[in-house]
Amino acid sequence: MPDQTRPRILAVTNQKGGVGKTTTAINLGAALAELGERVLIIDLDPQGNASTGLGISARDRDNTTYELLLEDAPLASVIRQTGVERLDIAPATTDLSSTDVELGNAENRVFLLKDALSSEVLLTYDQVLIDCPPSLSLLTVNALVACDAVLVPLQAEFFALEGLSQLMLTVRDVRETANPGLRIEGVVLTMYDQRNNLSQQVEADARATLGELVLQTRIPRNVRLSEAPSYALPVLAYDPASKGSQAYMELAEELLARHAKRKEPA
Ligand code: ADP
Ligand code: MG
C-alpha cells in the first residue's frame, strides 16, 4: 500500500534570476529521490529550464503547467517521468508567460495552483518542489499560496540580501491572506566559494540577519552543476562524485532531518 499522506510542498523562490533556483529544484529533487522519496517537480517558469534540464523535449509538452493552471487539465495528464527513478516533473513552456495578463482580475487567480494540486495523484508523492520564475509575479504568488514552505537560494554575491526583504514582505502578505501556514523553510547559500572573501562576507551577513533560517549546507560553485543540464541529467546522474552532487545530497539530508525534528511531539 503506498503511503497516502499529503506530500510536503516546497516553493523554490527568489525573484532574482540566475541565483540557482532551477539548479536547486532539479538537484535537490534528484537527491531526495536518491534517498527514497517520491518527488514531483512543478516547473512554474515560462523558460522551462527545469523541464529541459531533465530531458523533457518540447514535443513531449502537450499538457503543461499552462494547461494545468488555465485550462483545468488534470494534474495526472501533465506529469512526465524523468530518466531518474522516483523523480517526475510537470513541465512548462513559454505559454506560461501570458498568465498574468490572461488572468487579469479573476477572483480565484492566486488559488489556481492550489486547486490544481488537490488531486489524488499528488498523494503518490512525498515531496513536491515548485521551480518559480525570477519575479514576484502571479505565478510565484500561486506557488506561495499552494506550498507549505519556501526554500530561498541565495547567491553568495554582492547585493544578495537586497532583494530578500521584498520576498519576505510578499511571503508575509500571502500568510496574512491566502496561506496562514506558510513558512520559510530556509535560505541556502549557492555558488559558494570557500576561498572568496565575498562569499564568506555574504554568509556572515546572512547568518547575522536571518539566523537559524540559513541552512548549514552551502552549495559550492561547481562546474559539473552547470554542465549537467546540457546532458539532460541531474548532477547526481551526470557525476555522482562531484562536489555539486555531494552538496545537494547534504541539502536533502538536512531538509529531511529538519522536517523530522519539527514533526516530533514537543
Ligand atoms: P535561476 O533558476 O535562479 O535563474 P539557475 O539555477 O538557472 O538559476 O542558475 C543560473 C546559472 O548558474 C545556470 O547556468 C546554472 O547552470 C549555473 N549554476 C547554478 N548553480 C551553480 C553552482 N552551484 N555552480 C556552478 N554553476 C551554477
Ligand atoms: Mg530558473
TrEMBL record:
Coiled coil (residue ranges): none
Pfam families according to UniProt: AAA_31
InterPro entries according to UniProt: AAA_dom (IPR025669), DNA_Partitioning_ATPase (IPR050678), P-loop_NTPase (IPR027417)
Superkingdom of this protein's organism: Bacteria
AAA domain: residues covered: 8-184
Signal peptide (UniProt feature, chain positions): none
Function: Involved in chromosome partition. Localize to both poles of the predivisional cell following completion of DNA replication.
Matches recorded under PANTHER family: P-LOOP CONTAINING NUCLEOSIDE TRIPHOSPHATE HYDROLASE, PARA FAMILY PROTEIN CT_582
UniProt-recorded name of the protein: Chromosome partitioning protein ParA
Organism: Roseicyclus persicicus
